[in-house]
Design brief:
Helix content is about 40%, strand content about 20%. The protein is an alpha/beta fold and about 400 residues long. Helix 1 runs parallel beside helix 10 and helix 7 packs across helix 8.
Amino acid sequence: MLIGLVGKPSCGKSTFFKAATLMDVLIAPYPFATIKPNLGVGYVRVKCLCKDFGVKCTPRTGFCDGETRFVSIDLMDVAGLIKGASEGRGLGNQFLNDLSKADAFIHIVDISGTTDDEGREGKGDPIKDVRMLEEELDLWFFGILNKAWDVFSRKVQTEKSDFVKAVAKQFSGINVKEEHVEKAMKKLKFDIENPEKWTKEQLKEFSHELRYLTKPMIIAANKIDKERAEENLKKLREVFPSVRIIPCSADSELSLRQAAKHNLIKYSPGSKDFEIIGNLNKKQKEALEIIKKNVLLKYEEGTGVQAILDEVVFSLLKHIAVFPAGTNKLTDSQGRILPDCFLVPEGTTALSFAYKIHTDLGKNFIKAIDVKTKQAIGKEHRLKNNDAIEIVTK
């Protein structure tokens, strides 16, 4: 799973990325500080099965605090996008190519409105920023479709090619599947028998639907602790009532994560509090108290960074967490207890989960066992969040 961080220059993408991954990336107060994409690992929270089974797990990847399992996901921080990116302006072509394999986007918005359209210090408009990015992403999809539409539409009509398959193939490089094309067509009800008669506006509408289905997006209202941020957040929610918008302070999360890394505080990502465990000077204590007062205690999601990652994976992409395990033992060949936790789409069956773990398990599948209930389940059984499953093979 790959989540792309998008937004105009200087909105806080790299700070968000570093706060989520603790990777050493350049953070600078000028446009296009990020040129090549940064790839790293972030984590989402899952209720661990430690207490259910009375054990202490030893994850192969990620970590566990005894109650919450942090499961890894891939994050990408790309160059900032400005108006005209779909036509190559700024680092537009590179930006869009980098994003082609992303499953979803987190749009980092400077909710304080202290940077202009191109990321320079000045007056900005978060509402305008959201509209600009949505438009550029739609134009990206439109460009791919429009580039070969005349030839493509005639071929579909004269050769009676399968429209759905043909469109999915045209967009295969950016993860568009046949099911996405079918959903878009079901909603729009355009004439697929005569696609050469589609207007430019219909092509744009179709492109928008494909983008919406294949690159879902959440808004991170960043810099929420700055002046005018709350006022702008209220306006943004009024203009985009159907969009999930979560206030966040990536800078605060980064400060807390770094302090925890150096054993100055005890802090779990997503928590609304921290515990001082190291020797802090007066300035450090004051800085942490400001974060607690202005961010942690003020907003339901704390700094918002962890809540946003969780929301993307579990609500936007509708994934669940499933643990491979055994009815007689919870360890792998190396003695690790509940070493793995997989993030899979809702509706995943026992058989498809077996293939997810290893191809041989899928090929030799006989049945699965719900480790919690000890009951056998068939290959078409749909798994639930926090299931522990044993795969029985021949």
